[in-house]
Design goal:
The protein is of the alpha+beta class. The chain is built from six helices and five strands; from the N terminus they run αααβββαββαα. It is globular and about 60 Å long.
């Protein structure tokens, strides 16, 4: 005799035997998986990193604007507070930066680490640029440096076995916290 469904249970006929696993639904990730925000080509007109500076900061998830580069939250973060530092100029390779761009990318990366650490208590960071598609660059046509905060034990079974990343905060909330801290405001 089968049990009657309770208010808490979800029954879906025809899917086989229950496996005892919980499900963490992340439908927003389908846009990334399908490549919906990928540029159609490598031109600056198709480039999201060229388009973002024309948007209001909140809409574009911009945390800080510098002279030659800016800091923006990653739309598909590896962890909460995952920022990218991008030059305004549409260049693909680090060797194409001017001296001023190179220095400001470094300064913004350093500041991003300080701000994220102050806001979230990050215990470490992965910093890096994937140069070219073969090196893993999702958008190879526009240089961007990743600043990925890390905490002890943050890479648990979810990404390894479940192929899922858990993010406890909305991007708009993270952007607000980091932008205020970057500007020197006290956390609210």
């Amino acid at each position: 005799m089968s049990e009657e469904p309770t208010e808490e249970s979800v029954v879906q006929d025809g899917v086989g035997e229950a496996d005892g696993l919980d499900r963490l639904w992340t439908p927003h990730r389908m846009a990334y998986i399908r490549g919906e925000n990928k540029p159609a080509d490598a031109t600056s007109g198709e480039c999201p990193f060229c388009r973002i500076p024309s948007l209001p900061d909140e809409e574009g998830l911009v945390v800080h604007r510098g002279r030659t580069a800016y800091a923006v939250l990653n739309l598909y973060p590896y962890s909460p507070g995952h920022l990218m530092v991008c030059p305004y100029r549409h260049i693909a390779d680090y060797t194409e930066t001017t001296a001023e761009e190179m220095v400001e990318i470094g300064e913004l990366t350093k500041r991003a680490m300080s701000v994220v650490r102050a806001v979230s208590g990050a215990g470490g960071f992965n910093i890096g640029m994937n140069q070219g598609h073969v090196a893993g660059a999702g958008i190879a046509a526009h240089l961007h440096q990743h600043v990925v905060p890390r905490w002890p034990g943050d890479q648990n079974f979810m990404p390894i076995i479940g192929r899922t990343k858990t993010l406890p905060e909305l991007l708009s909330d993270t952007r607000g916290l980091l932008a205020r801290a970057w500007a020197g405001e006290a956390p609210s």
